[in-house]
Amino acid sequence: MNNYQLGLIMNSCISVIGVVGVFIITSLAGMFSLGQAAFMTISAYFTFILAKTLGLPILLTAVMGIAASALCAYIIAVPTLKLRKDYFALITMGFGEMMSSIVIMLEKYTNGSIGYSRIPKVKPVFWIIIGLTAFVIFFAWSLKRSRFGRMCIALKTDETAAKSFGVDVYRLKIRIFVIGSCISALAGILYGLKNRVITPDGFSWNLSAEMQIFLFFGGTNSLTGAAIAGFMLKLIPETLRTVKLFGVSLQEFRTVIYCILILLVINFRPNGMLGEKEFSIRTLAGLFRRKEARNGK
Amino acid sequence: MENSRLVLRCNDICMDFGGVKAVDHFSMAVSPSTTTGLIGPNGAGKTTIFNVFSRIYRQTSGSLELDGVNVDNRGQVEVARMGLTRTFQNIRLFSGLSVLDNVKVSLDHSAGYNMLDAVLHLPSRQREERRIGQRALDTLKLLKLDQYAQSHATSLPYGLQRRVEIARALVTEPKVLLLDEPAAGLNPEEVFQLVDFLKQIRELYPQLALLVIEHRMDLIMSLCDCLYVQNFGRTIAQGKPAQVQCDPVVLAAYLGEE
To answer: Cβ distance A163 to B77 under 8 Å?
Structure first.
């Protein structure tokens, strides 16, 4: 594989990590966050500026960057999660916009909208990204299948009922939001490591919305669907770069293509491509059996 | 009856909604091992009383004690963990989960492992998961629902969903169980099964204090030791079912003046 193809895979993996972060927040606990890119911004800028100015190893500053994102997520969550769901979406969206503006305002440190590019080279970045993607998926899968996952799905369906069975809804939501934001933060750092430059535009509202779209496309309650959608929907527009329509690269129509896809999904599969299905040996066996039964007819 | 034996007790509870008195000076004392019925016409404030008991609402005035502890300032979660569980008038099962997982949710707050254990699959996670899984399954077996354990909770017939909801509330072995119109929406056959089911529960959980809101008099009469009749937020009669049944005030409220 050449560098370009490796780059595509890395981009898609970073997208998967971002989508899994959103999955934890939106699919598990039902909090519709439209500002996850903000946590990517915080961690990425924090990590790389600290690494440069203080000369600390990137591993250490990355941990600090994620911690900074977690702290911000906590501060946002404590008052906001007392509000109704729709206000939560509005406030996270506002927070996302706020972060982009702050980055531009702090031009002295962040280099404003030109982008911060003094990012050290890390090797082997490809395997780091692949490894962390696998880890994050495993993390989310474990969380979903634990008591926390069950309580989250319960509170997502019916908060009052969940409370009546001893689920501390407010506290659990805060924890889930912080964890999901940490994963987004990780995606932000990896994005910086891969591209060697971070700009406020790269972490704009578009990215937050894009991650929600991917998640929705993959399946409202399916980690498998979220991961596959995060990977494929990032990859496909890139491969369309060379395809031209009316003399313009199809990639320029990315947003239009996403919109069409979403409309199709809403119409024909309102729960996303995979709905609530998860990949497992049992599902595979089930598929196989069904095929056999059909052939038997 | 001495005070210490009371598992639930409320004194002069009032609940106003902007001038409308939904509950007006309601008092009640419930001891363990009893079944108490709460009846009355629509809008009499029965569900509001349950919502105050389970702390979905905070009462405007009056005090509430659960197992000898004042719970006026406790929230829904705390009261649930202290041993007061309930079902809802319109079934509120968790639709994304299987029957077994629905029951497990009740136990989840008490499972002794944290997020780190969960994510790293440490032994404490496996042990606790096995424990609550077993306990949930035992309860389902006891209530003869184990054959549906893996089904999607909301895909079951209505009567079964009702029973799963009761199982979910019973798995923690609560002190008080509030049943809000358990027979609502059931056909006569299912009501019949429900009465049997509740009688079984009475035997299986001898210590449990059961509170039932119901419209079906046959169900109330065959189950309850004691009845409270509500009308427009006030208690108009209380006592043994047979006694209440002949009370002229109750008849007037239920059937209209003759």
So the answer is: yes
Closest to A61 in 3D by CA, of A50, A45, A53 = A50
B161 has a chain A CB within 8 A of its CB: no
As a whole-number percent, the residues of chain A with pLDDT over 70 amount to: 97
pLDDT tens digit sequence for A56-94: 888 999 999 999 999 999 999 999 988 888 899 999 999
Domain total of chain A: 1
- Say how far residue B159 (Cα) sits from the centre of its chain: 16
**What is the value of pTM for the model shown?**
0.89
Give chain B's count of helices (H) and strands (E): 10, 10
Q: Which residues of B79-96 are buried (b: 16+ CB within 10 A; e: fewer)?
A: bbbbbbbbbbeebbbbbb
Task: Delineate the domains of chain B, giving CATH numbers in brackets.
Answer: 3-96+172-255 (3.40.50.300)
Q: Which residues of B touch A276 (CB under 8 A)?
A: 96
Contact by Cβ (8 Å): A13, A130? yes
- Return the residue matching tokens 């891969």: A194
Nearest CA in chain A to B111: A147
DSSP label at A167? -
Helix (H) or strand (E) holding B26: strand B20-30
| Residue ranges, chain B, pLDDT below 70 | 1-4, 255-258
**CATH code, A134:** 1.10.3470
Cβ separation of B54 and A157 shorter than 8 Å?
A: no
CA of residue A189 relative to chain centroid, distance: 13
The yes/no answer to whether this complex scores an ipTM above 0.90 is no
**Amino acid identity, residue B221?**
M
Query: Which secondary structure element, helix H or strand E, spans residue A139, and what is its range?
Result: helix A125-144
Give the side-chain half-sphere CA count within 13 A for A127.
Answer: 2
pLDDT value at A105 more than 60: yes
Report d(CA B173, CA A222) in Å as an integer.
Answer: 33
What 3-state DSSP class applies to A63?
helix
A278 neighbourhood in chain B, CB within 8 Å: none
Q: What is the DSSP string of A180-205?
A: HHHHHHHHHHHHHHHHS-B-TGGGSH
Query: Does the CB of B92 have a partner CB in chain A at under 8 Å?
Result: yes
**How high is the pLDDT of residue B168?**
93
Q: Which domain holds residue A87?
A: 3-296
Range ranked top by mean pLDDT from A112-121, A251-260, B9-18, B238-247 = B9-18
CB pairs under 8 A between A and B: 93
DSSP string, A204-218: SHHHHHHHHHHHHHH
Comparing CB atoms, the residue among A143, A153, A168 nearest residue B97 is A153
CB contact under 8 A, B97 and A142: no
User: Is B115 in Cβ contact with A148 (below 8 Å)?
Assistant: yes
Which residues does chain A have within 8 Å of residue B127's beta carbon, measured at their own beta carbons? none
Question: d(Cα A222, Cα A156) in Å, to the nearest integer?
Answer: 14
